[in-house]
């Protein structure tokens, strides 16, 4: 039996090469950036001359969206970076063997609005080291419109069949535009930048005239659902979309096999079907698995493969492979998140995809580094904010066991013109990512409010669409108000609340008459105990170069938007997490944000940057709050001393803060043991107050000994009273940090 299974697998693999080709299409694109004058938009000027040679992924905003070019009107349309049209072009020679095939081009992400053309008479080109030179000719090319896509974060597929010529050069021309558009979400660049360009991979897909649908909103064409999941059994349902362009009815067979991690075929089902040449058709297959190995988050992210094939005339003519993680999600109000009927913590972080010097044009290595940092912290869940991210990233979350909240970029503003595009992008998000076992909820919107009646109606439509497309997952909407019963809320299964006590309003701790996070958590725990609530965003900005010895209680960035001390952010996160972990009303929580990210149009910061990341924009500095979460969430031993960058200190007596998940640490300063180390906000947080420093260099060491294993941390501080007069200082009674 094993030999038969092996031979079948070899057969599948060999047939795949001929059944469907997926060809990377990323090398040596020519690029020309606008703005363009009216006179330039013709073949003789725009499309000849020198173009920049680029490789995909590429964005034209890698520098200007991250630079400090201040403009007077932060919310105005006078952006500090280039938005508008730019062009990409690439030539290729279709193979003669493709003549009776279907040919598609797939773009995984173009920021933000794309028009695609095929030129079957391209200008002659010469590729040099850094540019491509095009020579004019009498014909100047013939450009044929292929299609348009609106939205910078979802994939799209266009069919080229019948538009190209074989055995000669053809050219793909792409016009990309990232201007604000009130009908396309996100409708502005305020919360995060919409980088322009072909910033995710491109591929050509070549199939038989009968195929598993390629152009079903750029989905896999195979949808895997699961019911009645337990250790004993699981019911797997497949929906396969078929497309027949042979112009005749065709008898085919649909073969689907579930293959385990070792390559063994666990189950195979064969379904005969007569395919019509009209319209896309759906074929359903039901498979019952006994004793499945469950996908169990970080503990055991076990993945099967589902291989679906079309067989005709005794040959495999198409094949698609998808991953399958067999699992069960459940959110229980006032209890928590359950994975496979066991309570599982949603230790959540959020992630923006952009990077210093690269924008959103990331490599797989960049994605891997982000995930390694998130895993190191001990996070179990990621809110992929605030838009659809790359398929590679979702796939890696599948294989790592990270639980994902996926969402669309309906954020921050309602124009009343975005309905169609919001519905389109939600459908694309769901269909393109339907089979990722890591995704537990679809995010419908973030902080959209007015006009109220329109917004309620649209969010209700979004929820209905999500439930129609995928009835087995949750939906979530996010409010920036600290009230659960705002009129726009509760049109989805789950209510996410974004709140920043002590940053935008309120205070970290209730020392005056302002509301703090503890008071709020207590209030909603009593009033909304039957609601499914997630603390979807909380955070405070921190610049590693900005340091104070004592944090205040209210970090008001409106008063001093150039100074964000790391110590205040540390205090903010200590208090917030210590509150969240003891309130079961929060089924999960998400720190905003894992990494600093660009915010090119903002009234909040002087620099085009949001510094709420636990890690710096270039991923080189892990700030103190990062280690707070690592100590609380990770299974790795952690002992960490805060304020390691507050080296030159002006206070003789100080408080020393330690994060330790190894019990009470022994603390020494200059070799002398400090006796008054005690717990602070929770069992991981330790403080020693009124520790005296000696003038000059001070060596601070925290160490634990668990079963003979030493874990320690060491920092050096310099004390001199003269440093106090040169520092920005905030005391515990100050209203504003940084004043």
Written account of the structure:
This protein is an alpha+beta fold and 739 residues long. The protein contains 9 helices and 46 strands. An 8-stranded antiparallel β-sheet has the order 8-9-3-2-4-12-7-10, with no helix packed on it. Strands 28-29-30-31-32-33-34-35 form an 8-stranded parallel barrel, surrounded by 4 helices. A hairpin with a 3-residue loop joins strand 25 (329-332) and strand 26. The model is unreliable at 1-17, 69-78 and 730-739 (pLDDT under 50). Helix content is 16%, strand content 35%. Helix 7 packs parallel to helix 8 (624-633). 47% of the residues are buried.
Distance between the termini: 75 Å
Q: Which band does the percent of strand residues land in?
A: 35-45%
* Spatial shape: globular
> What kind of sheet is the major sheet?
8 strands, antiparallel
- Structural class call reads alpha+beta
